[in-house]
C-alpha cells in the first residue's frame, strides 16, 4: 500500500511556493522596467524640447493653461522653465495632465486612436516628471496617471494590440492594485488573444476587488461569455484532431 509521505508533500509545496515568488518577482521587475522606460522617455522629450525652444520664454505672455503637447507644445514646455517657481510649475503640470486627458478623450471619441495614444502618453510622461508637490497634489497626479493608463489600455484594446494593453493595465495596477477596470481590461486582452484560462484568472482578480453591483454583474457576464468561447475552442480543437 502507498503511504502518505509528508516530506514529499512539503517538498512539492515548497517548490510551488518558490515558483509563485519567482513569478511575483518577475512581474515586479517588469513593472519597474516599464516605469524606467516611461521616465527615460520623459527626460528625452524634455531635452528635445529644450533644444528646440532654446529655453526661451516670453515673460509677457499670459498663459491660462499649460495644455498638452497636442494643443500647444510651447505652453507645455513653459511649465519646465528654470526661472519659474516650482509651486507654479507644478500647478501648470497638473493643468497639462488634465488637458492631455481631455484632448485624448475627445480624440478617442473621434476615432483618431493613434494621435489619442500619443496625447495620453504625453500626459503620463508629465506625471512621471513631477516632483516637489504637496501630498494632495501627488495624490491628484497619481489619480490622473491611473486614468491615463486605463485610457491607454482601452486604446490598445480597440487597436487589438493585446500585449500593449496588458502592459498599460499593469502600470495602472502599480498605482492601484485593487483597480477593477485594470483587471477587467487585462481579461479582455487575454480574451482577444484566445487565452481564456488567463482571462478567467484576471476576471477572478477583478471580482475579488469589485464592490459595486454593476461591476460584479459585468464580470459575471464576461465569465459566461468566456465559458462559451472556451467550449467553442475545445470543440474546434477536437474537430482538428479528428481530421488529422
TrEMBL record:
Repeat recorded as keyword = yes
Q: Does the keyword Cell wall biogenesis/degradation apply?
A: no
Q: What are the UniProt keywords, alphabetically?
A: Coiled coil, Repeat, TPR repeat
Q: Which residues cross the membrane?
A: none
Output the InterPro entries linked to this UniProt entry. AIP/AIPL1/TTC9 (IPR039663), TPR-like_helical_dom_sf (IPR011990), TPR_rpt (IPR019734)
Q: Which SUPFAM superfamilies match?
A: TPR-like
Report the superkingdom from the record. Answer: Eukaryota
What is the protein's name according to its record? Uncharacterized protein
- Taxonomic source organism: Spongospora subterranea
